[in-house]
Amino acid sequence: MPALACCVDAAAVAPPGYAAFVAGDSSLPGVAPFSSSTAAAATVNSNSTHWSTAHSTALYRIEGWGAPYFSVNDSGNISVRPYGMDTLPHQEIDLLKIVKKVSDPKSVGGLGLQFPLIVRVPDVLKNRLESLHSAFESAIQAQGYESHYQGVYPVKCNQDRFVVEDIVKFGSPLRFGLEAGSKPELLLAMSCLCKGHREALLICNGFKDTEYIFLALLARKLALNTVIVLEEEEEVNLVIAISKKLSVRPMIGVRAKLRTKHSGHFGSTSGEKGKFGLTTTQILRVVKKLQDSGMLDCLQLLHFHIGSQIPSTALLQAGVGEAAQIYSELVRLGADMKVIDIGGGLGIDYDGSKSGNSDLSVTYGLHEYASAVVNAIRFVCDRKSTKHPIICSESGRAIVSHHSILIFEAISATIPTAMNPVDLPSILEGLSEDARADCWNLIQAAVRHENEACSVYADLLKQRCLDWFKEGTLGIEQLAAVDGLCDLVSNMVDASDPTTTYHVNLSIFTSIPDFWSIGQVFPIVPIHRLDERPDVRGVLSDLTCDSDGKIDKFIGGETSLPLHELEGNGGGAIGRYYLGMFLGGAYQESLGGVHNLFSGPSVVSVLQSDGPHSFVVTRAVPGPSCGEVLRAMQHQPELMFETLKHRAEEFCGQDHGDEGTYAALVSTIARSFHNMPYLVAASPCSLTAMNNNGFYYPNEEDYNATVESRASEEEHWSYCYA
């Protein structure tokens, strides 16, 4: 960091003590490139002249949150390990190669998709399913448990068609089923499970009306292994009445409202005052109603949910033990109990800390979780001489989070106050004596490293100058110069790192809604250049016109993220800089909105292959276009285009002798309706208007396509012509 002497005119007459400031004081604090607030970052020697991928792995805690699916390869890029610990070196997939393949123009062999981009890796999804099942089977064998495990996937975590279909396909050999919490989710689950294992469970949760229960009983008629879980006591009356009308013998479950709960954000749906479930008193009344109706044998499942992201196995065992006691009592009361559904709660380690003190981490892995569940149920059932039940879980977050990666670009950066030379005499000229005194006091406080005094003098000086500016006695040049001096001094004496704002081609409200809604933090890492030292501390600002559209909280409690300087940020075209948000496969897509009418991202699915790049793209879907997102808000893009086309004809049409401009304008408008709402990165061939009546096209390929399409607009907008 240069001393202030490099930025001011030393010829100005200075008060005593200023000479040292002019000469440069080497004791002024420099800007450390990395925060020392995290243990991982502290292990990295930021003064070392050599930087390796191992440094980046430690800095971003990749092994903590990413193992066994993500690592840094020798090229400095993030690699995906599709089979987890069983992945061989030649099977690792370079994430940057995927990005280049899908985003490069079609003219050079790419797919031409626009950012932001979701990369799905179904092999990871399959591995998560198999690992979860294997963990329970190992615990069952080790503890002599006399039943089996079969999980269900709660489709609310990610209802994407291909995600759900993959889970049914991969889970079929494991008898893996689905859980629904609404009528459309039930229809989805019914359809998908027609291709699943015949014993796979279809768990029907959520509040229910007559139509919901009718659909669930219809699924039973279709030979699907359907369980209607009672969330409210009144639902049992509907189930009894409709099942008799349809002559269907239902399989019924009850959701117990346990006393056990955890105190984190995700524990708010548990405990005695939780949103869902029946108290013990209500459960007894349900048992009585079923008994009186001759249907007590239909009660076969007990469900409960402690809350998502259960932090420790101690809390888990307490809740499971309480539920197992209720299960055993229902057996004693004559119910034909078969299944205990432990709900969700299997957490993932978002920050790699292996800590149970926050909603971001858990202290256990899959095997510890499964062992704790099996042990708690076995202990209670053995004590009560109850037959061991089938164990079911609804571990959606743990299943889908890892397989989906959000990739987005940093398109520009706003650097903290530039270290421009400060012309001190011109600043002092025209200021009052009080303001001049404030200037010198500010500089002397900086020399003495008096941070609090600097802040006081800077605020006082800026306020005086602002008042004069409002009165019209101070010009904007002097106001800006004073602001520059104050910011410069502040940056030099401030102990915290200066933070650069990276503008990213993304809507946080659409793609990372949990961040702004509940403060959920996800690991965000550059997917390349990890063999280079990240010398910048940055926060991320999205494209929306909203002050909440920024990410300024990161794993490890950090308020900024180590990033690399954008190539070409000092002028010219910006080099591509890609960031990845990991562990976001659950909830983000279904919860995302369309703030500022920014649509969802493009999506690709990638499988591991034996080809030269170790992967093959099996599915590529462009993100919703401007027209599609407008239509979702009840607008009519076809009529909008007609209106604009007639307007163009009125002002730029043949009557104005400018047919070329009219054709280009109409074609550009049509293409805008068909393009995604996000920005298109500039390329060298797009920095000029390409001699096309002043119209801008993202690149030469788009320009050529537009030229070819001018004579046949109906190919894109056939409905615009009679």
TrEMBL record:
EC number: 4.1.1.19
Residue stretches making up the Orn/DAP/Arg decarboxylase 2 N-terminal domain: 144-401
Entry-annotated residues carrying N6-(pyridoxal phosphate)lysine: 156
Pathway: Amine and polyamine biosynthesis; agmatine biosynthesis; agmatine from L-arginine: step 1/1
Cofactor: pyridoxal 5'-phosphate; Mg(2+)
InterPro entries (UniProt xref): Ala_racemase/Decarboxylase_C, Arg_decrbxlase, De-COase2_CS, De-COase2_N, De-COase2_pyr-phos_BS, Orn/DAP/Arg_de-COase, PLP-binding_barrel
GO biological process: L-arginine catabolic process; putrescine biosynthetic process; response to cold; spermidine biosynthetic process
Residue positions of the active site: 545
Listed GO MF terms: arginine decarboxylase activity
SUPFAM superfamilies: PLP-binding barrel
Keyword Magnesium attributed: yes
Catalytic activity: L-arginine + H(+) = agmatine + CO2
Keywords, sorted A to Z: Decarboxylase, Lyase, Magnesium, Putrescine biosynthesis, Pyridoxal phosphate, Spermidine biosynthesis
Family: Belongs to the Orn/Lys/Arg decarboxylase class-II family. SpeA subfamily.
PANTHER family, sorted: ARGININE DECARBOXYLASE, ARGININE DECARBOXYLASE 1, CHLOROPLASTIC-RELATED
Official protein name in the record: Arginine decarboxylase
Protein species of origin: Hibiscus syriacus
Source lineage: Eukaryota, Viridiplantae, Streptophyta, Embryophyta, Tracheophyta
